[in-house]
């Protein structure tokens, strides 16, 4: 992640997510929050090339729905 061109924004965001998950894990005696952070970031890193290709294609993405607005989305 640190080698990616997005490192300036991704690394602080990952570290923030990791710190919160670590705090949650300590309080719950469960590693699940840590696993969720790792899995989320693995998916983000894996999807980055496809997102770059889409943006570079010049397609208009303004008609898409923000996933935070989708009902029933896991938080």
- Mean pLDDT across the residues is 84
Series of H and E elements: HH
Distance between the termini: 23 Å
* Strands, count: 0
What's the gyration radius in Å? 15 Å
The proportion of residues forming helix, as a percent range, comes to 55-70%
Instruction: Determine the strand fraction and express it as a percent band.
Output: under 5%
Label the structural class.
Answer: mainly alpha
| Morphology call | extended
Helix run count: 2
Largest sheet: none
Low-pLDDT runs: none
List keywords for this structure.
75 residues; mainly alpha; 2 helices; DUF6247 family protein
Task: Explain this structure.
With 75 residues, the protein is an all-alpha fold. The protein has helices at residues 7-28, 32-56. Helix 1 packs antiparallel against helix 2. The longest helix has 25 residues, at 32-56. It holds the Pfam family DUF6247. Residues 56-75 are annotated as: Disordered.
What's the short story on this structure?
With 75 residues, the chain is mostly helical. The protein contains 2 helices and no strands.
Question: Layout of helices and strands, plus pairs?
Answer:
Elements lengths: L6 H22 L3 H25 L19
Helix pairs in contact: 1-2
